[in-house]
Amino acid sequence: MKVFEQLESDIRGYCRLYPTVFKSASNARQVDEAGKSYIDFFAGAGVLNFGHNNLLMKKAIIEFIEADGVAHSLDTYTTAKRDFLEAFHKTILQPRGMNHKMQFMGPTGTNAVETALKLARKVTGRRTVVAFTHGFHGMTLGALAATTNSYFRNAAGVPLEHVRHEPFGCNKPCQGCTLGCGVGAVDRLRSLYADSSSGLEPPAAFLVEPIQAEGGVNVASKEWLLAIQTLAHDLGALLIFDDIQAGCGRTGQYFSFDGMGLDPDIVTLAKGIGGFGTPLAMNLVKPEHDKHWSPGEHTGTFRGQGLSFVAGKVGLSYFDNDDLMNDVKRKGAQMQEHLEGLVETFGSGRFQVRGKGMMQALDLGDGALAKQVAANCFERGLLLGACGTGGKVIKMIPPLTIPDADLSEGLSLFTAALQDALEAA
Amino acid sequence: MKVFEQLESDIRGYCRLYPTVFKSASNARQVDEAGKSYIDFFAGAGVLNFGHNNLLMKKAIIEFIEADGVAHSLDTYTTAKRDFLEAFHKTILQPRGMNHKMQFMGPTGTNAVETALKLARKVTGRRTVVAFTHGFHGMTLGALAATTNSYFRNAAGVPLEHVRHEPFGCNKPCQGCTLGCGVGAVDRLRSLYADSSSGLEPPAAFLVEPIQAEGGVNVASKEWLLAIQTLAHDLGALLIFDDIQAGCGRTGQYFSFDGMGLDPDIVTLAKGIGGFGTPLAMNLVKPEHDKHWSPGEHTGTFRGQGLSFVAGKVGLSYFDNDDLMNDVKRKGAQMQEHLEGLVETFGSGRFQVRGKGMMQALDLGDGALAKQVAANCFERGLLLGACGTGGKVIKMIPPLTIPDADLSEGLSLFTAALQDALEAA
Amino acid sequence: MKVFEQLESDIRGYCRLYPTVFKSASNARQVDEAGKSYIDFFAGAGVLNFGHNNLLMKKAIIEFIEADGVAHSLDTYTTAKRDFLEAFHKTILQPRGMNHKMQFMGPTGTNAVETALKLARKVTGRRTVVAFTHGFHGMTLGALAATTNSYFRNAAGVPLEHVRHEPFGCNKPCQGCTLGCGVGAVDRLRSLYADSSSGLEPPAAFLVEPIQAEGGVNVASKEWLLAIQTLAHDLGALLIFDDIQAGCGRTGQYFSFDGMGLDPDIVTLAKGIGGFGTPLAMNLVKPEHDKHWSPGEHTGTFRGQGLSFVAGKVGLSYFDNDDLMNDVKRKGAQMQEHLEGLVETFGSGRFQVRGKGMMQALDLGDGALAKQVAANCFERGLLLGACGTGGKVIKMIPPLTIPDADLSEGLSLFTAALQDALEAA
Amino acid sequence: MKVFEQLESDIRGYCRLYPTVFKSASNARQVDEAGKSYIDFFAGAGVLNFGHNNLLMKKAIIEFIEADGVAHSLDTYTTAKRDFLEAFHKTILQPRGMNHKMQFMGPTGTNAVETALKLARKVTGRRTVVAFTHGFHGMTLGALAATTNSYFRNAAGVPLEHVRHEPFGCNKPCQGCTLGCGVGAVDRLRSLYADSSSGLEPPAAFLVEPIQAEGGVNVASKEWLLAIQTLAHDLGALLIFDDIQAGCGRTGQYFSFDGMGLDPDIVTLAKGIGGFGTPLAMNLVKPEHDKHWSPGEHTGTFRGQGLSFVAGKVGLSYFDNDDLMNDVKRKGAQMQEHLEGLVETFGSGRFQVRGKGMMQALDLGDGALAKQVAANCFERGLLLGACGTGGKVIKMIPPLTIPDADLSEGLSLFTAALQDALEAA
Fold first, then answer.
1. Residues with Cβ < 8 Å from D408, sequence gap 6 or more?
2. Which residue in A42, A68, B301, C23 has a CA-CA distance of 20 to 30 Å to C71?
3. Chain A residues with CB-CB distance to C215 below 8 A
4. Statement: residue D18 has pLDDT above 70
5. Can you tell me the distance from the alpha carbon of A398 to that of A412, in angstroms, rounded to the nearest whole number?
6. Confidence grade of residue A175 (pLDDT, cut at 50, 70, 90)
7. Burial of D55 (0-12, 13-18, 19+ CB in 10 A)
């Protein structure tokens, strides 16, 4: 590990939580160079929905490379990209009646968000975007302005402008929360926009994570999302869903917002969409907005990632039938029950379980405790991380393909790690 | 191609220049699905320095995947990353006496630039960055503020602030240029900064491409770069070199600024560093600046790209001896001579050759003509693109590993394409 | 009037409401050049608290001029300024236990607000100011950013930044108001500031009009003002009261916020403070904040207005005893009763009376109606104006010294004008 | 003086240079309460062109007050304002063939500048304004962004945006100046604007002081002004002349830019225009731009200043014939000769004389020396101030009406004060 300390930037972070050197990984297991195996409840921050080194993807990628497939293509046409587009259209868009265009940009979530905001501003001729408390949208200046965590914001070095933050509408408010979220907050916001002397300018867009992952696994209520959607439409603003961490099947359905009658103008996707862990980002954009783009107006070198298209297409094949999604619902329920049991045992009225599908979280209400729990987990062979304000929420996002045995063992390890931390406290 | 028109965003650009569907690629050749083979003088916008599907890289990547190497690791420690760090340190940094730390971020050039600017602002407590006319640094808002092309800037939708643009110091000014660049411009700028009533605020950084690729292949003079470096140091500002397109061996040496006595505080790298076309970006940061980072203060999901580390390490092995760089110098000279011959034949006093190593360009002074030439090239089986203000400059950046035969054939195709265009005009 | 149309800018406004040329004015009467006399319920937008050409002031000014007093002195010391400072200290500050320093700047309200914001940012090292819906603070860019009316904001030509607007806490909410103001809104805002992931940055100041005049004569509740004050203190932000229109005795006490246990860090004053209609602006600044200024750091040519000091001192003499303030309370009650009577007669549940002391308003809920009423008033010989969103509120701010007969006659004229407008509608 | 120290803000500035309490003033003399008489070479920062308590103005103002003239009228029509408009039109505009509309705003220079910038942005739909090194335009945020002195800028507390500063084109460059001003700088700027990849956005306006007063009495060359005018027109930008300190006869002609074939779109006036020292500000706006204003879109309480209209009209009467302007030329020449003599005697190659008409300055190249000289002057009974970067320039702007004896005596006092300071150094 000395090599990293000597040569790599001090900014490195997760390695401080997991102080070992990983050598290999397979499905929900990572192995360090000392041979210790870890169960992975983190999945590369939600990228590896189909597990590390998914066998089908490995095979497809190796075949592609051996056949000299076009690995890097900017935004020229390639067969790999066409296959991906067709699969996504057939598997995801068509069944939902979505006619969104697919746009590729620099293959990171923050690029996707920047691109979406840029288009919303272009379409509406307005500047201000409404984003929400506890939201996380990326680190480049345009996306960082929408991100809320002051630790990240304070590093910007310049004022972060053109975004107004409003309370997020959780379906299950935290204990003692007085932020005033919910549909009432949307009504108040509507009144402000209706008043030409409120000081608020008509917004270009509402940027919403239907489930805030980094922000503490806060699940928006259907009512609130619908109210925001109606307000956006009434104001002539675009509705942008950032489904970068919660999308791609994580919640037991492809989009985290499926089944609520929602109709976003733009959906930003990244993380899980490339399947294998190689980068990819893609926005879904309604054609009536997409046509406002001029060719090449927003570019990026790594827009055409052959390996990600190939593995991503394999990932889409998991949605050809309901098997995986049913599995996710079943395992998600198991995770939730387990956590609810822990609340009853250890922290009734103190801890809180939140989540949907296989993104489940235990809000410990205490960042120091959560940090200790995560460290204990690592010692015991379980990888997971904390999120939310002050890092007080333990988030569990194992690969959707995690074997039942690993899932159960991981939950047991967590119980023990929590117990240790509570006893030591 | 209909699939793309129906499903993909209207923003797609290069595909309009190359209206075909590519299926495979090898070294300096791309083949479309109709079986037509193209010589590649574009190399994925400068990413594929070692050719499409470089054989050594293919082998290394496939072995890595088969061994279940960690493909995606955020910023945890992995053996693949350690190997890359050590190789970069040994091959590139140590021989140059550079003690810069290596920082990974979202794996695109724009993320690298945003990260560098963020740090410069943090270190200095200042906001304003000096960037240069014709510079290109990326599309996210922080980097876009430094980018100059109004086509990109106008799409921002918000004011682009905190950057002051000054004339770039070419070593070979364009015909009739009256921008007032050169060392004299640096002296004038120094005087402005020396005057507390100039209206200019002390800058956080000078952001410079030693060779502006997208901006028209403008090569900075050594004198100008040294003058900027001295000014930056005198003002307590950081010197940031954006070597994203011109670095990684493109100019016949690893960094485009090697051998001039330059000592940048930060170097941004991306494109060619991952070797195979899978994304990677990395900043080199002097330790005295790097220590201003707090852990995880600037994050990004795709910071730990196993495949890029593996292929990138193979790429670094090309710098173990001088063979490739000597080759680049030889081929670059051939390209330059060929272009100079064209100037003599067709456009003395009208066209201009600019470049270094295997980034060579012919400034045709006319965007419509350049567009026609590029289209003719495509027809004849040669891929290349235009750059510079109004797209008036033909840029040639073939893989460094292009076979001599392909290089010669490509240059001949270009001659014919130019001749056709001039005759038609 | 042709002269004006030919020579003066099209931006002229009030003259369109009062299409005549005024020649002289005395106390609450203005006379046009045709000899028609008007009762003045507008008092120069709240400047002429002591009437046009107040006899005591006339005398004092003429004596001063005849004695070659220093009419214009920048911020050098003059006897006239000393007299004013001493009088203000003795009459206003000392009895209230206020140890605020007096600061002069460019003699307009907007300059006063800009100066206050500048200091609050300097003291706290923060940027963002919280201002309130329906607030009016001036037209220069710093103050305009806090002003809410979109008609004014849209003319800025640049983004108006660094201000966050929140609902104002009326003591008597408008019919059907759903802005969500009141103490509950302050609690919600407190929660947002308490959460380091809310996206809100700690504010430099809360900028509040205890009574919003231009915004529609909205009177803040004591509870809300106290809650804002507590929040400001808890956040380390400054509490700035903009008492430019409601101060100087207008409400039956010198400050509009007297008697509520409030303790603002800065109070901005202008309009009425110079007494005679010659410009003056002054901020009251707590010494612990004032010491953050360096000499001459914020300047302005017309800071030292001899005539305004002289007349302003006369104005202060009206506060040596309670006679005027008792009169204001009595007349204000008469105005309010009259308006309440009109509500009962013409618009129960439709119109609303709001105000304090001799700033009384009738909210007609309809800008077109209010415009017609004001036009009818002018025809009948009564000058008054509309305010509030869309100009739907008739505001009455006669000179505090208006004779009882003029006040009664003015109210009668108003009744008739309203009746006419309602009948015509 | 204790009263001021106890009660007035620490920001007070000029009083530190002139530590006494002034009681009366007449023409070019100020008398303190101890009876000491001072010759005034400062004229209230250029306001009192016609002397303190100008007899004709005193008479007119007193008559106006006694007749109950309308002292304060917002932007309603009054007879006093009409008289002023007609006089300005007849005396100033008509003889020059100017058809500019007259616009009144908050009566300070900074309000005038803010208003001009607002209109230029409105007319062009652009944001960025080009202003010039050493320029001074006011203290409110919009004008401060154009002001260059870092002492003022650093107090802003927010970033000052939307202005690009370029070198000012002096007719007589300072010793050793390397700012690169002059027509060459305009050519370079033109080239930058002509290049769509320069990073510069088309400007809304060029904001120029034909003579920079606060900036160090820098007189623009005719060639440079014409080049800027041509560039502005070619770019579709407005040309705004800030003639606030140098206008109103100061230079021996009404406008400082008279007689050069210049045709500004907007001229900002304040300071001297109200004549007596009571505030007034006025913009002259070409009708084709003025028509972009909507009624009342930019307001301000103190727009209609009766006393300033009355005195200002008296001031205009001085331009009915050439007597005063001939006098100004004669006295200005005397001042200049005197200063040139001092340069020869004391500082050839070290000091520099600059100025036009009765704005003359001695650049001592040393702020500490200039401060000592000004202090010595005060001791000897002469009031003047320093300007320019670091306060190194002594500026002399006596009332235009100063008696010859006072002028000569003042110049002698200055010689002695300079000699003392040089001997002490």
1. D334
2. C23
3. 197
4. yes
5. 14
6. low
7. middle
What pTM was estimated for this model as a whole? 0.97
Distances (CA, A) of D180 to B251, D150, D163, D184, D325: 34, 20, 19, 8, 34
Q: Among D172, B14, D356, which residue's Cα sits nearest to residue A104?
A: B14
Searching chain D, which residue's CA lies closest to the CA of residue B198? D133
Measured between alpha carbons, how far is B276 from A302 in angstroms, rounded to an integer? Answer: 12
Q: Of A140-149, D129-138, D342-351, which gets the smallest average pLDDT?
A: D342-351
**Nearest chain B CA: its distance from D127 CA (Å):** 9
Cα(B5)–Cα(B9) distance, rounded to whole angstroms? 8
- Section D341-369 average pLDDT: 94
pLDDT in tens, C129-153: 999 999 999 999 999 999 999 999 9
CA distance A194 to chain C (A): 10
For chain B, which chains pass the contact test of at least 3 CB pairs under 8 Å?
A: A, C, D
Q: How confident is the model at residue D307 (pLDDT cuts 50, 70, 90)?
A: very high
- Most D CBs within 10 Å, among C4, C6, C7, C9, to test the D interface: C9
Contact D199 B159 (CB under 8 A): no
Query: CA-CA distance, C39 to D41, in Å (whole number)?
Result: 46
**Which residue of chain B comes nearest to D181, CA vs CA?**
B188
Q: Give CA–CA dist C196/C218, Å, rounded.
A: 32
pLDDT > 90: what percent of chain A?
A: 95
SS3 of residue D298 by DSSP: coil
User: What are the DSSP calls for C208-243, one per residue?
Assistant: E-SEETTTT-EEBPHHHHHHHHHHHHHHT-EEEEE-
> What is residue A417's predicted lDDT score, i.e. its pLDDT?
98
Is residue D164 classed as helix, strand or coil in its secondary structure?
A: strand
- Domains of chain C are 2-53+323-424 (3.90.1150.10), 58-317 (3.40.640.10)
Cβ pair D226, D262 in contact under 8 A: yes
**Residue among A207, A243, A231, A234 nearest A117 (CA):** A207
D175 CB-contact burial (10 Å; exposed 0-12 / middle 13-18 / buried 19+): exposed
Pair of tokens at residue B95: 């021989």
Q: What is the pLDDT of residues B199-246, one digit of tens each?
A: 999 999 999 999 999 999 999 999 999 999 999 999 999 999 999 999
Q: Residue D140: its chain C contacts at CB < 8 A? A: 106, 110-111, 114, 140-143
Subunits with at least 3 CB pairs below 8 A relative to chain A? B, C, D
Q: State whether residue B283 is helix, strand or coil.
A: strand
Average confidence score pLDDT of chain B:
96
Q: Which residue of C has its CA nearest to D383?
A: C76
Nearest to C108 by CA among C338, C268, C339: C268
pLDDT by residue (tens digit) across C305-339? Answer: 999 999 999 999 999 999 999 999 999 999 999 99
Q: Which residue of B has its CA nearest to D193?
A: B179
Q: Which residues contact B48 (CB under 8 A, 6 or more apart)?
A: A72, B40, B272, B277, B399
DSSP B271: G
Mutate to test the interface with B, among A4, A20, A31, A108 (most CBs of B within 10 A): A108
Mean pLDDT for the stretch of residues A254-278: 97
- Decide if B241 contacts B418 (C-beta within 8 A): no
Phi, psi at D34, each rounded to 5°: -85, 0
Beta carbons of C285 and D162 less than 8 Å apart = no
Total CB pairs under 8 A between chain A and D: 3
Q: What is the pLDDT of residues C173-230, one digit of tens each?
A: 776 677 777 898 999 999 999 999 999 999 999 999 999 999 999 999 999 999 999 9
The pLDDT assigned to A349 comes to 82
Residue contact D159–B162, C-beta within 8 A: yes
